[in-house]
Amino acid sequence: MINVLSKLPNIQNSIFSTMTALANEYGAINLSQGFPDFDCSPKLINLVHTYMKKGYNQYAPMQGINTLREKIAEMTEDLHQSVYHPDNEITITTGATQAIFTAIASIIRPDDEVICFDPVYDSYAPAIDLCGGMVKTVTLLPNDFAINWEDVKKVFSHKTKLIIINTPQNPTARIFTDQDMQQLIKLTNGTDIFIISDEVYDKVIFDNKKHISVSSYPELRERSFVVSSFGKMFHITGWKVGYCLAPEKLTAEFRKVHQYLVFSVNTPIQYALADFLEDQDEYLSLKNFFQEKRDYFFEALKATSFKALPAEGSYFLLANYDSISQLNDLDFTKELIIKHGVAAVPLSTFYKNKTDKHLIRFCFAKKRETLEKAIESLMKIKI
C-alpha cells in the first residue's frame, strides 16, 4: 500500500460542492452555490460558435489574445481611470481562481505571512498553504463586517508579504470604501508588501454606490494584482475565463507561473468576449439587473422568519435565522435542504475558526420564478 502524505490534510470537498450535491439529492432549490440558473446572452454564444467555425481552435498566446487585452484596458480606464498596458500588464486566465493561485504562487515563499479578512472566500488559504505561506486572519466587525484597521496593524510582522482583499466581498456583500483604501495605503507605504484584490463582482454594486478599486490609487496599483472574472460578468461561470491586471514587474512574475499552469486560455471564447465587450451596456447594465433581484429577495424575506442583512454588492445576501432555530448553521442548512427544499451556505465555513453566528448565505442570481419558489418554501418555516 502506497502511503500518501497530503499537502492539504485538513481540506475536504468545498461547502459549495457539498450543498449542491445535497440539493440535487433532495430536489431542493439551489441558492447555495454562486452561479445563475439563467443562460447567458445568445449573442455571446453565437460569437463563440462563429469563431469555432472560422477555425480559431488552436492555442492562443500565453498572455491572451491582443484584442481582448486591449478591450479590458479600455474598460478599466473608462471605469476606474486606471491605465494598464495590454502587452505587459494584462493577462487572460482560466477564471479568477486560477489568477489568484498564480498571483500567490508568484510571490509567496515558505514562512511568508498573508493577511486575509475573516469571513473569507475559501480558495485563498489552500493556495497559500500549498506555497508554504502562513495565513493571518483579521476578523471583520460583527455588526456591519467593516474592517478595524487597528486589528490589521496587530497582525503585521516582518514576515508579512501579502494582503488579500475582496470587494465586493463574498460572503458578506460588503464593499470597500475610500477610507479603507486610504488605510491600506498608510499600512503598506514604504514596505514591500503586495496586494491581491479580488474584484470579480466589481460590476455588481447597488444603491448608486461606486466600486472602489485598488487600481484607482497609484500607491496601491504599484503593488497590486487585480483579479476579475468574465464568468461573473456575463453569466458564464462554466466557461472559466478571467483576467489579472498588474504592473509590468508583477505581471512578468505572474506569467512565469501562469505559462506552466495552463499555458493558454480557450481561444474562440477569447475572441467572442473581445467582440462582446464592444457594447458597454452588456456590463454597465449588470448593477440594475442584479439590484432588481436583490431588492425583490430582500423585501420578500421580510415575510419569512429570516432577517436579511444589507447587501452592498455581489449577488449574495446573508440572513439570520435566530428566531427559527438554535441549531448550528451547518446543521441548519442541511435541515433547510432536507425538510424545506431550499439550499444555502452556512457562514461559519468561511471563518478560519468556524465561528457560528447563525447566519447563512443565499445566492439571488436566479430567475424570478426560482426566487419566488424559494420564498414560498421559506415562508412555511414556523417559529
Total tally of structural domains: 2
Number of strands: 13
Q: What is the second-level CATH architecture of the largest domain? A: 3-Layer(aba) Sandwich
Assigned CATH class of the largest domain: Alpha Beta
Rg from Cα: 21 Å
Strand content: 5-15%
Q: Which whole number gives the mean pLDDT?
A: 96
Poorly predicted segments: none
Global morphology: globular
Q: Whole-Å distance between the termini?
A: 53 Å
Order of helices and strands: HEHHEHEHEHEHEHEHEHHHHEEHEEEH
Give the number of helices: 15
The profile of the biggest β sheet is: 7 strands, mixed
Main sheet: strand order:
2-8-7-6-5-3-4
Helix percent reads: 25-40%
Protein structure class: alpha/beta
CATH superfamily of the largest domain: Type I PLP-dependent aspartate aminotransferase-like (Major domain)
At the third CATH level, what is the topology name of the largest domain? Aspartate Aminotransferase, domain 2
Organism: Olivibacter domesticus
Pfam families: Aminotran_1_2
Keywords: Aminotransferase, Pyridoxal phosphate, Transferase
Family: Belongs to the class-I pyridoxal-phosphate-dependent aminotransferase family.
Word description of this protein:
By secondary structure, the chain is of the alpha/beta class. It has 2 domains: 15-40 and 284-379, Aspartate Aminotransferase, domain 1; 58-281, Type I PLP-dependent aspartate aminotransferase-like (Major domain) (Aspartate Aminotransferase, domain 2). It is built from 15 helices and 13 strands. The strands form 3 sheets. It has a 7-stranded mixed β-sheet with strand order 2-8-7-6-5-3-4, sandwiched between helices. The chain has a 4-stranded antiparallel β-sheet with strand order 9-10-13-12. Strands 1-11 form a two-stranded parallel sheet. Strand 5, helix 7 (178-188) and strand 6 (194-198) form a beta-alpha-beta unit. Helix 4 runs parallel beside helix 5. It is globular, with a radius of gyration of 21 Å. The chain starts with 14 loop residues before the first helix and ends with a helix. The model has no long low-confidence stretch (mean pLDDT 96).
